[in-house]
Each structure stands twice: as structure tokens, then as C-alpha cells.
Design goal:
This protein is of the alpha/beta class and about 325 residues long. About 20% of the residues lie in helices and about 25% in strands.
Length: about 325
């Protein structure tokens, strides 16, 4: 069995950056992911434009070239594919990590492929860079499991001339509501707080606020979702309960890291913030030889770490290993 110097769990930009830095340092890394390459980015809205400029998404000192000032989802996906190819990163996709065995210097990562076949990969060190986009913050209301309810937004064409309810008040919800409106959907935005979130992109905020003022998008603030039915959403606010017609429901209420997976690995989490125990200089967790990278470091504060700063974690970890 091949023994890798470093096994990166997670094939997003941060996981790739860790593997690339290991390659550049003369190490042999392996990257494993339960989905496709950059699985979270792949599930972003089809027409999404990044908040940041291209140089802040770059890894491995490779330039990201894009047509406009800010890169699109498709341009970013192409870039990360080319980065993995350029550095000949050994990537195993559609393999779910079941468990990690062994200890520092002699780890074994046990996985299961999409066809059910089991694999075991030997590695001296482990990096967990699993992100957070795979685990939505659930509403925990009846009907949330219905087929017309989604915690991810893709595109609007299917919902032309249809009633759509968007639940949430941060950037994802605002952008989805605007895209749906501009593609002919009748949109209702339901948010449990009194106003829109402060993290909305600066060019999106005036747009969504003006659409709400013009009654082009109906917004219900301080409104709680009671349950979801096949053709409507029951909400409650100061005016009482009411039903909102809904051909589709987008519950865009945020996401969180896989805390259970981290705890299974033996990583200690702060009870309140869920931040993991680690050395801030090396990013080694309380488990010897097990390093953390990307948004998993931020605990419940998922807005603390983005691609822009998480991409440097690979250099930090590899420097410590050297």
C-alpha cells in the first residue's frame, strides 16, 4: 500500500491548496472527497459571481484569468480543475471517508466509493478541509423534507410564472429572490429577523431593498415558518398565521461544518462556539498529526474564513511539517 505524506480530506480550494503546497515541498499528498472536485462551488447558483477579485481566489501561485472584474462560478471551477491538473494532484473523488484509524505518522483513512467498494489509504499526516456547505441549517419544521423544498439555489428558469417562497435574509436569500424575480417568478421573502442581514454584498443590498419597496418582491420580516405543505408555506408573525402559495420553497438559512465528524476524529470543540482546539501557528489540532484548514476552524462563525484566507492554510501547515 502506498503511504502518503499527507492526506487531505476535502477537495475544495483549501484542500487543493494544502495538497499543492505539499507537492511543491517535495511531499506526496492525496486528496479525498465524497463529491466532485470543488463540490461546494459546483452547487453554487449557476450564474453566481464571486464577491471577491480573482487574485484572492488563486492557489499554487497560478493566475486566475476571468472576463470581468470578478470571476464567475464557471470560471472558478475551470481554474481549480486546471490547478489540480498542473500540479498532478492525486485526487480520489466520490469517496466518502468512513473513519480514520491509527495515529500520528501511521494513519489509515477508510473510505467507501460510490459503487460501494471499500478503500484504505495510508498517510503520515491528515488535513481536514471539509468546509461547511454540505450541511444546511435546518428549520426543523414539518414538511421540510418535501421534494419541492431545497436548501440550495441553482437557477430560476423552471419557476417562471410560479409562486416561490424564499426563506432567509442574508446574501444567498437576497440573490436568489432577485434572480427569481427577474426571471418571472412571483417571489415572497420570509425572514425571522426585523431586517436583512448585514453580510449582503454591497451591490446586492440596494437592489433587493428597492425591489421590496416597489412591491416587486414581497418581504415578510419577523416572520417564523410554522410548517410547509405541498402547495403552500404556513408562517406566523404579529399579524397571526397565514399561508403563502409556493410551487417551490428555497430555505436558504445558512450552513455549518460537520461537527460530528470532527468529534469522531477526536478533535475537541468549544461547547459554545464549536471552534476546534488547535495550535494557531501550525493548525495542528489536539490530535497529534491531524491538521485543520479552511472554514472548519471558524466553528459556528462560518463568515470568519473564506477561500480568500483559507487558501493560505496549506502553506501554514506545510511550513510546520517541513
Amino acid at each position: 500500500m502506498t503511504t502518503y505524506d499527507l492526506i487531505c480530506i476535502g477537495a475544495g480550494p483549501t484542500g487543493l491548496a494544502c495538497a499543492i503546497e505539499a507537492r511543491r515541498a517535495g511531499m506526496r499528498p492525496l486528496v479525498i472527497d465524497k463529491g466532485c472536485l470543488c463540490n461546494s462551488l459546483f452547487h453554487y447558483p449557476v450564474n453566481m459571481v464571486f464577491f471577491t477579485t480573482p487574485e484572492l481566489l488563486e492557489i499554487g501561485d497560478l493566475p486566475l484569468v476571468c472576463a470581468a472584474e470578478k470571476p464567475t462560478r464557471n470560471e472558478a471551477l475551470k481554474y481549480y480543475r486546471k490547478a489540480a491538473e498542473h500540479y498532478a494532484v492525486d485526487v480520489r473523488l466520490f469517496e466518502r471517508v468512513d473513519r480514520v484509524e491509527g495515529s500520528d505518522g501511521k494513519y489509515a483513512v477508510v473510505t467507501q466509493a460510490a459503487n460501494g467498494a471499500g478503500e484504505k489509504h495510508s498517510g503520515r499526516k491528515i488535513v481536514v478541509a471539509t468546509g461547511y456547505y454540505d450541511l444546511p441549517n435546518l428549520l426543523n419544521v414539518p414538511g421540510e423534507e418535501l421534494p419541492h423544498v431545497s436548501h440550495y439555489y441553482t437557477e430560476a428558469h423552471e419557476f417562471w410564472s410560479e409562486d416561490v417562497v424564499v426563506i432567509g435574509g442574508k446574501n444567498s436569500a437576497a440573490e436568489a429572490a432577485l434572480d427569481l424575480f427577474r426571471n418571472g417568478a412571483r417571489v415572497t421573502l420570509a425572514h425571522r429577523r426585523a431586517e436583512l442581514g448585514t453580510s449582503i454584498k454591497y451591490w446586492v443590498r440596494p437592489d433587493i431593498e428597492n425591489r421590496i419597496k416597489a412591491n416587486e418582491i414581497r418581504a415578510l420580516f419577523q416572520t417564523r415558518v410554522v410548517c410547509i405543505e405541498p402547495d403552500h408555506v404556513v408562517v406566523e408573525n404579529a399579524a397571526g398565521k397565514r399561508g403563502l402559495r409556493a410551487r417551490q420553497v428555497f430555505a436558504l438559512t445558512g450552513y455549518h461544518p460537520d461537527y460530528e465528524f470532527l468529534e469522531k476524529l477526536g478533535v475537541r470543540l468549544d461547547p459554545a462556539t464549536k471552534k476546534p482546539s488547535l495550535n494557531p501557528e501550525t493548525l495542528e489540532s489536539n490530535v497529534p498529526g491531524l491538521y485543520l484548514a479552511g472554514v472548519v476552524i471558524g466553528g459556528t462563525n462560518t463568515s470568519e474564513i473564506f477561500i480568500e484566507n483559507g487558501r493560505f492554510h496549506g502553506k501554514q501547515i506545510v511550513t510546520a511539517l517541513k
